[in-house]
Design goal:
The complex is a heterodimer of chains A (485) and B (120). Chain A is mainly alpha-helical. Chain A has 18 helices and 2 strands. Classes of the chains: A mainly alpha (485), B alpha+beta (120).
């Protein structure tokens, strides 16, 4: 009976855990609004800032409604079609259903993880909201690939479908106790479910929707670097909730994850800065480059945050930043990466960085970084992950990470492609060129810095009543009203 | 209709960082006032590169300030020399601007209706 749980049940509740979970969730929410909204809003051309920010705000709202009505249970509920993996119940997708009843005040529960981890010390509402902000940030991330030409109306239709079909499945397979969780692949807080998936979805969506105007693509200068810095800073510190909240307990591993997150990020930012200094065509360090490096660090440590030690975190930041920097400058010049117009390069800073981080878990995970003590199920032991460089020198974890990554890439790519193609049968996904010429004004009747010379409707008609009489009588006026000697 | 003495409009387009020194010079000279307008200027020497997320862009329209000074004809040579001097300091090959003079048919001070030289 859920009333047993109000306000402080005798057992199974920790106000510390609950408070941290809601705080962490709010930090992650801030990464979307205003974090990503102003980072992306500042990175796009001035004529797309309003459209970009409204897409972010509307998607955040859409995902929450969908999450409450049916999608949360598809990601974290009971399996829709039950299978078994290694003798344990499993599945690929949860059974859809609302998560809005009074039962949300009962102790949180992810059915397939029962016995495999300690019981949650907070209510289902806290779990629901924490997982919502992750679900919400994912389409906001790949928004970066499609801005500058995607139809706003199509965005409103596609986001709920994408959350339902693509995100829920990825989340269930890795976090809801589904297939890859059973196989032992791990994703600490979304290197795959969120970032690899966002990079893949963005790239596929950019390809299906088509490129921006040629002119916009050739010189898409950002409109406000101060807002970029503001958004980027919110992302970094917000990530303390992103990775620090995912153990579900305000314990030692949460703190380690927060420290690792910051270590990897600092290392990755500095590596990008140095690469810009040493190897970029103009040999100068750039703010936006460093922000890219920062994001790469945050993303790459995400699948690994509580599994690696501090040295591992720095290694992840350095390795991934080097790889993504190279991809940003070199891979972007060849093959489909040159062809597809991924507006803000989400496939690099999120797709490739998330993939790198997930794979590097297979190398750098330190078995002494214990996430959970032994659970209640028979044969369960303390939960930690062992990478190639630690313990038994086995590639096992690496292969699990690789196969899980491939599953996420393939499923996300197919799901995104099909959703876009089907929606494309009913409406145009790309705005007409005439609309793209003027951007925000054409789509929303708003611009990001409205001119202060606007007047009320009707007031702008020709000033017929004004007669220029004073100007016609110079001498008399001048002599009579001159007040100065 | 009373005609004042000859008047000229002196227009200078300068680098924004030269404004301070230009204002001081004009005020020390005793110029009655000035109008400053921000604008964009293009010239052969004004091109520079900017880099955003590895994308190299050319900036060939650059921000400049336009200073307009209405002057009595006899002050014109001094004022022009003054403004011209400001842009003579070397600035790494950048175009430091132009000064030009145009004839002014009439000037009216709006507050009083005065015309010609008294309106300056």
């Amino acid at each position: 009976m859920h009333l047993d749980y109000i306000p402080y049940p005798a057992t199974g509740y920790s106000s510390g855990d609950a408070a941290w979970q809601l705080t962490a969730a709010t930090l992650v929410g801030l990464m979307s609004l205003p974090g990503l909204a102003v980072l992306y809003g500042g990175l796009v051309q001035k004529k797309w800032a309003v459209n970009t920010m409204l897409m972010a705000f509307s998607a955040f709202s859409l995902v929450l409604i969908v999450w409450a009505l049916w999608a949360f249970n598809m990601g974290f509920g009971h399996p829709w079609i039950k299978t078994t993996v290694n003798g344990s119940p499993s599945g690929f997708l949860g059974r859809p259903g609302p998560a809005m009843g009074a039962g949300q005040e009962a102790q949180a529960d992810i059915p397939l993880l029962d016995g495999l981890m300690p019981k949650f010390n907070f209510s289902q509402s806290a779990l629901f909201y924490f997982q919502f902000v992750f679900a919400a940030i994912t389409p906001l991330l790949w928004l970066g690939s499609v801005i500058g030409r995607m139809s706003f109306k199509a965005w409103l239709v596609i986001v709920p479908l994408w959350t339902t079909i693509v995100y829920s499945t990825d989340a269930f397979m890795l976090w809801g106790g589904g297939y890859w969780a059973g196989k032992g692949a791990v994703d600490y807080s979304g290197g795959y479910v969120i970032h690899l998936s966002a990079g893949t979805a963005g790239f596929v969506a950019a390809a299906v929707i088509g490129p921006r105007l040629k002119r916009d693509r050739e010189h898409g200068a950002p409109n406000n670097l101060l807002l970029c810095a503001t958004g980027a800073g919110i992302l970094w510190l917000g990530w303390n909730g992103f990775n620090g909240g995912d153990p579900y307990f305000a314990g030692a591993d949460a703190a380690a994850a927060v420290v690792n997150t910051n270590l990897a990020t600092a290392a990755a930012l500095l590596v990008w800065l140095v690469m810009d200094y040493a190897l970029s065509p103009t040999k100068k360090p750039t703010l936006l480059g460093s922000i890219n490096g920062m994001i790469v660090g945050l993303v790459t440590i995400t699948p690994a945050a509580g599994y690696v030690n501090g040295l591992g975190a720095i290694c992840l930041g350095v390795i991934s930043s080097t790889i993504v920097w190279t991809a940003w400058y070199k891979l972007s010049k060849v093959w489909i990466f040159k062809k597809v117009d991924d507006t803000l390069g989400v496939v690099y800073t999120h797709g490739i960085a998330g993939l790198c981080g997930g794979l590097l878990v297979g190398l750098f995970a330190d078995p002494n970084m214990i996430v959970y003590p032994a659970g209640t199920a028979k044969g369960s032991s303390a939960f930690s992950v062992t990478g190639l460089f630690y313990g038994n020198h086995s590639w096992h974890q690496f292969w699990m990470q690789l196969f899980a990554a491939l599953t996420v890439i393939v499923w996300t790519a197919i799901g995104t492609f099909v959703i876009l193609r089907v929606v494309g049968l009913f409406m145009k996904l790309r705005l007409p060129d005439a609309v793209l010429e003027s951007g925000d004004l054409a789509v929303h009747d708003e611009e990001v810095s409205p001119p202060q010379t606007l007047v009320a409707v009707g007031a702008a008609s020709p000033p017929a009543a004004v007669t220029p009489t004073a100007v016609e009588e110079p001498e008399s006026t001048a002599s009579s009203s001159a007040s100065e000697p | 209709m009373r005609r004042g003495r000859l008047m000229k409009l002196i227009t200078a387009v300068i680098r924004p960082d030269d404004l301070e020194i230009a204002r001081r010079a004009l005020s020390a000279f005793g110029a009655p006032g000035m109008t400053v307008t921000p604008l964009l200027a293009a010239s052969r020497w004004n091109r520079h590169l900017e880099v955003y997320r590895a994308e190299v862009l050319v900036a060939d329209l650059v921000p400049r300030l336009r200073i307009d000074v209405l002057a009595d004809d006899e002050d014109v040579p001094d004022l022009v020399a003054l403004l011209a001097r400001i842009g003579r300091r070397p600035r790494g090959g950048d175009d430091t601007g132009r000064v030009w003079i145009s004839a002014v048919e009439q000037v009216v001070r709006l507050r009083t209706g005065e015309r010609g030289e008294p309106a300056l």
